[in-house]
Design brief:
Elements: H1 2-22, H2 24-36, H3 38-56, E1 59-61, H4 64-74, E2 90-94, E3 106-108, E4 112-116, H5 117-128
Parallel strand pairs: 1-3
Antiparallel strand pairs: 2-4
Helix pairs in contact: 1-2, 2-3
Bound molecules: zinc ion (ZN).
Zinc ion binds at residues 78, 80-81, 83, 115-116, 118-119.
């Protein structure tokens, strides 16, 4: 089930990369046609459902300025491992993962933290286990 889904995803990505560069107009037409097929409809729906589940279900009530201030205040030090990785390498982390959040959950500036890329991907891996 999971494998099948990934295969379809990979196929589409490959198709996109190859065909779009070749002929954008033809590619758009092909996508339109694909979306009309039963398989295409399913894939598109699944894609949207996934996107909705990850982001649109939650409410983010902080501004980019607040986040930038938090990032600057961190001085480039990761909140999780305390390593100094530099402000440019600090990433935004939702302390309570968005993928597990109930619909309508509100994220304010106190619900996010500045962490390094390493901690961020470790955290994601853990969630997927
Ligand atoms: Zn870290």
């Amino acid at each position: 089930m999971v494998d099948g889904r990934n295969n379809i995803g990979n196929k589409i990505i490959l198709y996109r990369q190859n065909k779009y560069v070749e002929n954008p107009e033809k590619y758009k037409e092909a996508v339109k046609q694909y979306r009309c097929t039963p398989e295409g409809k399913l894939t598109t729906e699944r894609m949207w459902r996934k996107r909705r589940a990850n982001k649109a279900n939650v409410v983010e009530q902080y501004t980019i300025d607040e986040w930038n201030k938090m990032k600057n205040d961190s001085g480039g030090i990761c909140s999780m491992c305390n390593k100094n990785v530099g402000i440019n390498k600090i990433t935004l982390d939702h302390i309570y993962p968005i993928s597990k959040a109930e619909p309508g959950r509100i994220y304010t500036i106190t619900d996010i933290q500045p962490i390094c890329g390493g901690c961020n991907s470790r955290k994601n891996n853990k969630l997927e286990e």
